[in-house]
Amino acid sequence: MTKARILAIDTCTESCSSALLCDGDIISQSQLAPREHAKLLLPMVQQLLADAQMSLSQLDAIAFGRGPGSFTGVRIGTATAQGLAFGADLPVLPISTLQALARQGYRLSGIEQQLAAIDARMNEMYLGAYRHLDGDMVAVAKERVCPPEHWREIIESAPATSDWYATGSGWNAYLATLGELPSNVTCHADDLFPLAEDMVALAEFAWARGEAVDAALAQPVYLRDTVTWKKLPGRE
After folding, report:
1. For residue 95, pLDDT beyond 80
2. Single pTM value for the model
3. Among 49, 204, 205, 230, whose CB has the most other CB atoms within 10 angstroms?
4. How far apart are CA 86 and CA 80, in angstroms?
């Protein structure tokens, strides 16, 4: 894999984080601080670059959590990535928050198949399913926003002997309503949120595949945007 220098940022959930990949090494910072992302993010980035004795212009690309997650958080991360990239004339790498969450679950559990879920409120979760493959996390089902019980559709389509690890805030938010989990599904005991250190590792694979895009083309992924508009009077 081509070695790259990539900065990653994420503000899509309650966690605010940044990470820097340089010559194969990752340094990172994170803080659980809802509603403070706009204040915390740029100082985090500046500190990482200072620690690595680098400038933005020495990077190859900027990765960012493109969602799903909180509407405000997704917008903050996308706009910040675009601003940094425009200023340094760099491309960007949009990374799924669910994919990053799945990589974190794999790091913690060693279980190759991950069910990543973020609490989407309104009795729904953002849900993705991934399989670990040579360091990368490959999607085995399309990301979706859905009622909590819909996760069963994913494992029912997989071999019965497959082990799964359930990771993320979506599980603990609705675990009481889901009943007993199958024996091949292990749920992480505490809430986990996507981290930039996982995003930057995934971004290295995306960079090698040539998936970097111009900053102007950076697009957030909300999954629920059409639902939100329909809740406004006169919007269909």
Report:
1. yes
2. 0.93
3. 204
4. 10
